[in-house]
TrEMBL record:
InterPro entries: MeTrfase_RsmB-F_NOP2_cat, MeTrfase_RsmB-F_NOP2_dom, NSUN5_7_fdxn-like, NSUN7, SAM-dependent_MTases_sf. It holds the Pfam family Methyltr_RsmB-F. The active site is at 443 (nucleophile). Residues 542-552 have a biased composition (Basic residues). The lineage of its organism: Eukaryota, Metazoa, Chordata, Craniata, Vertebrata. Gene3D superfamilies: Sun protein, domain 3, Vaccinia Virus protein VP39. It comes from Myotis myotis. This is NOP2/Sun RNA methyltransferase family member 7. The keyword S-adenosyl-L-methionine applies. Signal peptide: none annotated. Keywords: Methyltransferase, RNA-binding, S-adenosyl-L-methionine, Transferase. GO terms for biological process: methylation.
Length: 723
């Protein structure tokens, strides 16, 4: 409550001086902007319906004080607008901006009304208190100048009445404002606001515009060409660059960035009028692009609390109308009668709106059996947003958020309430057994709404079901800076509020891979195409592959015609190796040929036909020349045997040396003319697998050793050959 001395009004001369001071020093920035424009005031006031709409919005979001501190009484009934037609998009945006500005300065405006003696000297009814607050803010913002409207067809009696009162108290209002600034030692009333609110307003004034390309109606190249025809130049960044420029976003390939001062010009071009370019906050584009990266072919999507219908349209755009998109949270179709018409204009054909709220949808709902990815955009404090009015209007959020923005923070009780709602929605999304991923995205800067909710949901998820549990996955978006890499080290994607973007938090939860589950080639190609790895390659429909029975025989089947090229290369390599070793192996070849003529097989060794031609390579075992076996068998190291687990293992030859076989009627130890020659048995071995069957091969004489004279020339004597 103001002191009685503060309500005493000074003499007339001091009031004039203070009013002039108020007009000259309200804002140095505003004065300079007016001078740049040639001295013409930028702000000329609003039409009457805007004031009425702003008053009704302010009535619902104003800060209520305790009864002992009440300065002005407010009515409970809203003002009636002139007609429903006045509530179009342009009037609505202006009304919310005006109401939010009045809310930020509510305490100061109430003090000015009391200090200027408008209250209680005038008999203004309580239901007009909200109207006089919003009109007073606009009056001081115009430096107490009269409205300059070229055509004000929709005149409203209440607005005209309040405007006359403000004009009659013009001098006193200016003096009261000047004293308030002097009291707070502020150059303008903007400096009276909390620092967090001032920083937010500064970011909102310079934040670039983000717009995504509707590729269902136009290609990016056509957009670039159309913008260049209108004088726009493509650059790498729009920061600190004037003129008509645009850039392509680094995280989302279909999002363009424009400087903030170009919005009015862009809204008047056909690209935006025809829904070929759509303005939207970047955080929503990041969310739908994350979903896109997780999709397989024919996967359906469930979007929860999407807010803006443009987010749904962007998701439909990225899926190219292939996947079915379910949207829940719309209470009544009658609430959005033009929604179907909007989607038709944008080219979207795969959107289905569910009338139920998300928590009322059963996870066993038959409509959602093909849903594989759930996009959750829960209601949050939204304090990462620089322009709360744009956020509320575009995302259809509750106007109560404006109260938090005006005070620069959210109360603990409200933050706790929001976190409980977010946790309930996230845990409900994790109950959908057919879903394989959940994308959780907010515009909040509070960990209580972000990391804490996700970690709690993962910690207390139900492990009793047969399905695989969820785990935290790394971001599926490209990390374009070292700062983003560091901030994503804990697998969360964060963007802090800055001069180039609003704040954003994004988390991706995916089910752990079932070891018994195989991924089809179709799904792998779909994910690769979603990540841009198959750019320029058109994917056709893949046919189902039939499973073939694997051979259980010891020897592999003959190689197919597709492998002939590989076998030819192997044969050429062996021929080269043979030529290099020709001189070195000539003697051994002659001896082997002689031994093969006189050697007989012993025991129960396998019966293998003798080769009809001499061996071309002395290093190749004799059984490799068997004409009954598949060809070519020219190098044992390339002999492969199919394994049950579809792994091809390279087999290596193993040389087994056995002791000599003794016959019952053997001669004395000194003379052994009938001892068979040492036999080498070759078998092909893989790890833990032995190919049955082995074949005898005559021995090779050791270098420098001479055969005994009393032994046939076809036999060699070796000492303890089994060692």
């Amino acid at each position: 409550m103001l002191e009685p001395s503060e309500l005493q009004f000074p003499n007339e001369s001091n009031a004039e001086e203070l009013s002039q001071l108020a007009c000259l020093a309200l804002s140095d920035d505003e004065v300079s902007s007016e001078q740049d424009a040639g001295g013409t005031p930028d702000k000329t006031g609003y039409p009457d319906p805007v004031y009425v709409m702003a008053a009704n919005v302010f009535q619902g979001i104003r800060v209520e004080t305790s009864p002992e501190k009440v300065l002005i009484k407010y009515g409970k009934e809203p003002l009636r607008p002139l007609s429903s037609g006045s509530e179009d998009g342009s009037f609505q945006h202006l009304a919310y901006e005006l109401a939010f500005s009045a809310l930020k300065y509510q305490g100061i405006l109430e003090t000015i009304l009391i200090d200027s003696c408008i209250f209680p000297s005038t008999t203004i009814p309580d239901h007009l208190s909200s109207l006089i607050i919003v009109m007073l803010y606009d009056f001081q913002d115009r430096k107490f100048q009269a409205r300059l409207l070229s055509d004000n067809k929709q005149c409203i009696v209440e607005v005209q009445e309040v405007e006359n009162i403000l004009n009659s108290f013009k001098t006193k209002l200016a003096a009261a404002l000047a004293r308030c600034r002097i009291k707070h030692d502020a150059l303008s009333i903007d400096h009276i606001l909390p620092e967090t609110v001032r920083n937010q307003e500064l970011r909102a004034s310079t934040l670039p515009l983000y717009a995504w390309i509707n590729t269902l109606k136009i290609s990016p190249e056509e957009v670039y060409f159309s913008l260049k025809k209108r004088g726009y130049t493509k650059v790498k960044t729009v920061l600190h660059i004037g003129g008509k420029v645009f850039a392509v976003d680094q995280h989302c390939y279909d999002v363009l960035i424009f400087p903030s001062h170009l919005k009015s010009d862009l809204l008047n071009i056909d690209l935006f009028k025809d829904y070929k370019l759509i303005f939207q906050d970047k955080s929503r584009s990041l969310a739908v692009h994350s979903v896109k990266a997780l999709l397989n072919v024919d996967d359906d999507i469930l979007m929860v609390n999407t807010g803006s219908w443009y987010t749904v349209a962007h998701m439909s755009n990225l899926t190219n109308n292939n996947s079915k998109i379910f949207v829940c949270g719309v209470q009544s179709q009658a609430k959005h009668p033009d929604l179907k018409n909007l989607f038709t204009k944008m080219g979207c054909k795969n959107i289905e709106i569910l009338p139920e709220t998300f928590l009322n949808i059963e996870w066993k709902d038959n409509r959602l059996q093909k849903v594989k990815v759930i996009l959750l955009l829960p209601r949050c404090s939204g304090l990462g947003i620089s322009n709360p009015v744009e956020f509320i209007l575009n995302e259809h959020e509750d106007t109560d958020l404006l109260k938090d923005f005006s005070q620069g923070g959210t109360s603990e009780d409200k933050l706790r309430f929001l976190a409980q709602q977010q946790y309930a929605q996230l845990t409900h999304a994790m109950k959908f057994t057919k879903a394989q991923a959940v994308v959780y995205c907010t515009c909040s800067v509070y960990p209580e709404e972000n990391e804490a909710v996700v970690k709690k949901a993962l910690e207390f998820q139900d492990h009793g079901t047969k399905i695989q549990p969820y785990r935290l996955s790394p971001p599926v978006l490209p990390l374009c800076s070292l700062e983003e890499v560091h901030s994503s080290a804990d697998k969360f994607f964060r963007m802090e509020p800055s001069e180039i973007t609003n704040g954003c938090f994004l988390s991706v939860l995916t089910r752990e891979r079932d070891p018994s589950e195989t991924v089809s080639v179709k799904d792998v190609l779909a994910r690769a195409a979603a990540k841009g790895l198959l750019e320029g390659i058109e994917l056709g429909k893949s046919s189902k592959r039939e499973k073939k029975k694997k051979s259980k025989t010891a020897f592999p089947k003959a190689p197919s015609t597709d492998s002939k090229g590989v076998q030819v290369k192997i044969a050429e390599f062996l021929n080269r190796e043979t030529n290099e070793n020709a001189n070195r192996s000539q003697t051994a070849t002659t001896k082997i040929s002689l031994l093969q003529k006189g050697t007989t097989q012993v025991g129960t060794s396998s019966q293998v036909r003798k080769p009809s031609k001499p061996a071309a390579n002395p290093l190749v075992p004799a059984f490799m020349k068997n004409t009954s076996l598949p060809r070519p068998y020219e190098r044992p190291t390339n002999f492969v045997r199919p394994r049950p687990e579809d792994k091809m293992v390279v087999l290596k030859p193993v040389e087994i040396v056995l002791p000599p076989v003794m016959f019952p009627l053997s001669p004395p130890p000194g003379i052994r003319p009938h001892i068979p020659a040492q036999h080498f048995y070759y078998g092909w071995f893989a790890p833990k697998t032995v190919v049955p069957g082995y074949h005898s091969t005559p021995p090779i004489a050791r270098k420098g050793e001479k055969p005994k004279g009393n032994l046939p020339s076809s036999f060699l004597r070796h000492r303890r050959p089994w060692l």
